[in-house]
Amino acid sequence: MKIISWNVNGIRSVQGKGFGETLAQLDADCILLQETKAQDDQVEKALENIDHYHIYSNSAERKGYSGVAILTRREPLRIIRDIGIAEHDMEGRVIVAEYEKFYLLNVYVPNSGDQLVRLDYRQTWDLELLAYMQQLQSQKPLIACGDFNVAHQAIDIARPKANYNKSAGYTQAEIDGFSRFVDAGLVDSFRHFHPETVAYSWWSYRANAREKNIGWRIDYVLTSNSLIGQVNDAFILPDITGSDHCPVGISIAL
Asked: Does 65 qualify as catalytic in the annotation?
């Protein structure tokens, strides 16, 4: 089973950049999209010509903001939207597909913002997302994918010293939040297979950052410890364009 996660930075925007051809090229069993920036009906319309997938979305109340979607060839037992906390759920950041042997969670974690204006909110979010993921894990193994908006280690960011405790996505509070996910039994699949590899999944649109590979690894596929032995590979696909993020994913025997 091939699972791909990709922050598309606008489902309607990426449509005009060969999105259908890219999906065919990826040939994944599950494709998890973040930052769709569209309402459910707009997501449905944007994907109406995508064949062979069941499509589910969760959109923010605010139009043109946030939003996640799951495209899956294997029909899930059920779809769960949100985590049951109104303050978070209005932003449409979580959708879960339940299968017989595992849960597949797609998340778009809030950015702490310029001048870290949302850092306090982000810390609350991380703790409550953790509690939700632990709740799922208590029932069956979990695969959690998405844009976690944090570079976990210095190897995950091109300029760690310049950004540490100054930039959203690389504060100690955010790093600690992600560390709690790992401590709770979720494995960073890419780092598990590639402990020393420098690879990024997001680049600023400014100053030709992508061409210079001045990036951040903030997109992850996390798996329950009990599943990591079934993962054959974890990968990042920087040559796939259309967004300021690139797809990340795993191949897993399920």
From this structure: no
